[in-house]
Amino acid sequence: MSGSRLRRVTAVLLLAACPALSGGQAAGQPGTADPRVRCTPRDERLTELSGLAAGPRHWFAVGDGGSVVRVYELDPRDCSVVDVRSADVDPYDVEDLARQADGTLWLADTGDNSSRRDTVAVHVLEPSGAAELYRLKYPDGPRDAEALLLGRDGVPHLVTKHPLGEAGIYRPVAPLDSREPVELERVGTLSLEPTDTPGGPLPASFGSVLVTGGAVAPRHEVVAVRTYTDAYLYPVPNGDVVEALRGEPVRVPLPNEPQGEAIAFEPDGDLLTASEKLAPVRGVENAVSSVAARPGATVTTTSSADRPVSSPERWFPPTRRVLLGLGGVVVVTSLLLLGGVRRRARRRR
Length: 349
Fold this sequence. Notes:
It contains six helices and 21 strands. It is α+β, with helices and mostly antiparallel strands. Strand 14 (213-216) and strand 15 (222-226) form a beta hairpin. Helix 1 runs antiparallel to helix 6 (328-346). The chain crosses the membrane at residues 322-341.
C-alpha cells in the first residue's frame, strides 16, 4: 500500500476517532534476538518493496507497482539489484513473494484495498524463464490479502488484511488451473491482539493487527506472518500451514519500520524483514531455532457459514468491541479504501 500523504491523514483521523486505543496486549511474548540491519536499498525500483524471499546466494524482492511482473534479485551484502526476472503480464497489485527449493518464485497478486476484484491471482516464475498465471476466487466476496504462505505440498495459502485483526486464511479447493479461476475455501481465522511496538503508517492499535506479509521456512518447520510492527513465528506440525496457525507463536517485535510489508527466512534459519520507503533490510539471527510455545494468536477452523454471527464475544475481543463502539472500524475501513485510489489510477485496466 502506497501514499505517504494518505498515511499521515490516516494517522491523524484514527487518533482523533479512537483516543483510548494507543496500544494493547501483545499476542505472544518476545522470544528472539533484536533485528539488526543487514543492508539498505538505494535502488529507486525498491521504493515500494512489498515481498521478499531468500535463496542460497541472493535475495528476491517485489514491489507493488509497475505494469509488468518483475522480481529483483539482490546482493545481500549491499542490497544492490544484480538481476531482474520478469514476465510479460500486467499485474494488478503484487503484495507478497515466496520461493520454492528449486528456485520457482510465486508472486501473490492479491492486493485489493477497495474490494473490487472478481478474482485475485498468483504468478509463478520458473527458473527456466517460463511463467504462468493462476486466478483465484474468494467464496465470500472480495478480500484484500498481503500474505502468501506456500505449503510443503506447493499449495498457496492467503491470509487477508482485516482492520480488526480477524484475518481470514484461504486455500484453493482444487489444483491450480491456468485456464479458469479456482475457488478458494476459508479454512481458518487468525486473530491478533494489538501491541505497543512503534512503527508503521498507522497507530499501533491498528497497524499492529493488520497482516502485511508471510513466509515459510525452507524446511517448512516454521511459518511466519507479520504486521506493520511485529512478526509471529509458529512451529509447523507435519508441514501443515493451517495447523501451525492454530498454535501459539513467538512474537518478534520489528520496531520503527516505516511501512513493513515483507518477511522471509534465509536457508540458515535467520529471519529477514523489509519495508517500503527504502528502509534497511534487517535480520533476526537463529529465528527458526528460537521458536517455542508462547501465549498468542489463535485460529478457528469453522467456516464463515458455520460461525455464529450472534456471538460478539467470539467475533470481537474486548479491544475490538471498544473500537467498534467508537466507530473506529468505519474510519479504518474508509481510509484503507482511500489508500487504493492512487493505486487504481495507476493500474486502471
